[in-house]
Amino acid sequence: MNKELKTLGIDLAKNIFQLHGANGAGKQVLSKRLGREQFIEFMSHCTPCLVGIEACSGSHYWARTLQSLGHEVKIIAPQFVKPYVMANKNDKNDARGIAEAVTRPDKRVSTSLKILGHPSPQNSLANATGMPPAALAVLVPLDFQPPTGLKICAPQ
């Protein structure tokens, strides 16, 4: 693939992934929007590089997948990406911000691949807001697509 590619920022979503690649000097050399199947194929042919992804329900699954392909993966909390997102918030700008944030040495990133649903004091049943993302983290590798919209919440 692209030999100049040193850093890759990826904005993860359910079906579409936005990629922003930069060379060693930080200049953009890649901007792509790929589906799931295209993304896996692209990353398998891509030269190993530093990959930054924003923490979300599927980030640990994708981090394991990308590490198995030889990439160095860093997961960044959303609050550390936000200062680097320029202009309007959209997938392309988010990917660019992730690529910028992952290169900063002062930002706290996670390289450990803990399962979000693992029992711990932070993930107790009392913490109801943490359970849906934890459940999604387990279901993403199974290609589960949760229903969306308000109709699923309305009484029948």
Structure description:
With 156 residues, the protein is an alpha/beta fold. Helix content is 29%, strand content 21%. It contains five helices and six strands, in the order βββαβαβααβα. The chain has helices at residues 36-45, 59-68, 78-81, 91-102, 131-139, and strands spanning 7-11, 16-22, 28-35, 50-54, 72-76, 109-110. It has a six-stranded mixed beta sheet. Helix 2 (59-68) links the parallel strand 4 and strand 5 (72-76). Residues 113-130 have low confidence and may be disordered.
Short overview:
With 156 residues, the chain is α/β, with parallel strands linked by helices. The chain has 5 helices and 6 strands, in the order E-E-E-H-E-H-E-H-H-E-H.
Q: How much helix, percentage-wise, in residues?
A: 25-40%
Terminal Cα span: 52 Å
Structural class by secondary-structure content: alpha/beta
CATH class: Alpha Beta
How much of the sequence is in beta strands?
Answer: 15-25%
Principal-axis shape? globular
Please identify the oligomeric state. single chain
Give helix and strand order, one letter per element, not per position: EEEHEHEHHEH
What attributes characterize this protein structure?
alpha/beta, Nucleotidyltransferase, domain 5, about 30% helix, globular, about 160 residues
Summarize the helices and strands and which ones pair or pack.
Elements lengths: L6 E5 L4 E7 L5 E8 H10 L4 E5 L4 H10 L3 E5 L1 H4 L9 H12 L6 E2 L20 H9 L17
Parallel strand pairs: 1-4, 4-5
Antiparallel strand pairs: 1-2, 2-3, 5-6
